[in-house]
Specification:
It is built from seven helices and four strands. With about 180 residues, it is an alpha+beta fold. Strands 1-2-4-3 form a four-stranded antiparallel beta sheet, with helices on both faces. The two termini are about 35 Å apart. It binds flavin mononucleotide. Flavin mononucleotide binds next to strand 3.
Length: about 180
């Protein structure tokens, strides 16, 4: 494992993939990392779809290219889709909270674990926010009302350069009390 801070700095959104396919074992490690993410009351409101079938990957890529966006997805080697599932909450909590109260945050945590594990294995990822949900549901054989958590493109980066991070300065976002 790399130094964790180095891993955080090295993980970046990859928008230039080589056409090299991604090994299934590496994708399994990514979802394993997602599975290990923390979640509110350990509710684990997620499931994962791994798309590495070379006939289906380009179809998922097309779903991620509405309005001619995200052209780089044409070379993505695989996709990992995080789906929102029912959280398993303790009965006592269910009386206080909506069962999906923590779900969006939990899925964010799982998504980042997937991306960091991918980076640790030398893979590039890009989380895709803009996609055709209806077509993606049909393609994956999911009910149209299914809630998507995240669509993550995975592949081998064509460039090794690590871009400097553009982030708000620490002083602006942290208060010490
Ligand atoms: C919810 C979400 C949706 C995103 N959607 C897209 C997208 O559709 N296309 C894209 O190129 N990048 C997308 N990104 C990547 C962000 O632009 C990127 O994470 C941000 O600019 C920080 O850069 P970095 O990931 O390289 O550190 C998305 C990221 C997140 C978390």
């Amino acid at each position: 494992m790399k130094d964790f801070m180095e891993l955080c700095l090295n993980r970046q959104s990859c928008r230039n993939f080589t056409p090299r396919p991604v090994e299934r074992e590496k994708l399994v490690r990514c979802v394993e990392a997602g599975r290990l993410a923390p979640s509110g009351c350990n509710g684990q409101p997620w499931s994962f779809v791994v798309v590495d079938n070379p006939k289906v990957v380009p179809e998922v890529a097309k779903c991620g290219q509405p309005l001619d966006s995200n052209g780089f997805l044409a070379n993505a080697g695989a996709f990992i889709i995080v789906l929102e599932e029912h959280a398993v909450l303790m009965p006592r909590l269910r009386t206080m909270l909506d069962s999906q109260f923590f779900a969006k945050g939990d899925i964010g945590a799982a998504t980042v674990c997937v991306c960091l594990e991918a980076a640790d294995q030398g893979l590039g990822t890009c989380i895709i926010g803009l996609y055709d949900r209806e077509n993606l549901s049909r393609l994956l054989g999911l009910p149209l009302e299914k809630q998507f958590g995240a669509l993550i493109a995975v592949g081998y980066p064509a460039e090794e350069t690590i871009r400097p991070k553009t982030r708000k300065p620490l002083e602006e976002i942290v208060k010490y009390i």
